[in-house]
Amino acid sequence: MRVVIAEDNALLRQGLVLLLTSAGHEVLAEVGSGPEVLPALLEHRPDAAVLDVRMPPGFRDEGLRAALEARARIPGLPVLVLSQYVEESYAAELLGGGASGVGYLLKDRVGRVDEFLDALDRVAAGGTALDPEVVTELLTRRRDSPLDSLTPREREVLKLMAEGHDNTTIAKTLVVTDRSVSKHIGNVFLKLGLPPSDSGHRRVLAVLAYLNNQ
User: Fold this and answer.
1) Which of 32, 48, 79, 92 is the most buried (most CB within 10 A)?
2) pTM of the model
3) Which part of the chain is the Response regulatory domain (predicted)?
4) pLDDT(172) > 80
């Protein structure tokens, strides 16, 4: 996989370079400030971009802005955004378009190498990868919505779907059968008033769009 990295912390940036190259990926460019991000992405057109949300010069949302602009200029560009904290507004904005190939992880997740690389692979393949803490925030902040009608098990399934996991992984995590997972997913879509589709990443994106636009 060909990757561009945008991170202002030099130590973390080099750590990401080492992690990705050790996993067999090619780092095409590494930048440390907001204004450098878009030109690097447009020049290299990578298979995926790993971007910090807050970067110089303002340390506000420069990385996120560059990611959104790059996706507008390069439709479908897979972007995995890293953040120090759970910032719902950033997650909502990134996912608001309902596009595929997006991820939002807390930086602590990078230290869990297998989880980070798995998330990057899912995003590069056009899927979605949301940090479990971000998903929890999105779910628990909802009040007086159809989410209230979900059973505890259905909420667990929805949470794992939103993180980007497939049916087999959900079944293993919850120690249930694939058939049970499919049944729970069908109930979730029915209760949320979403199309009863259980194929590919569309179901995850539909749920995320619902959670972020109610």
Assistant:
1) 79
2) 0.75
3) 2-122
4) yes
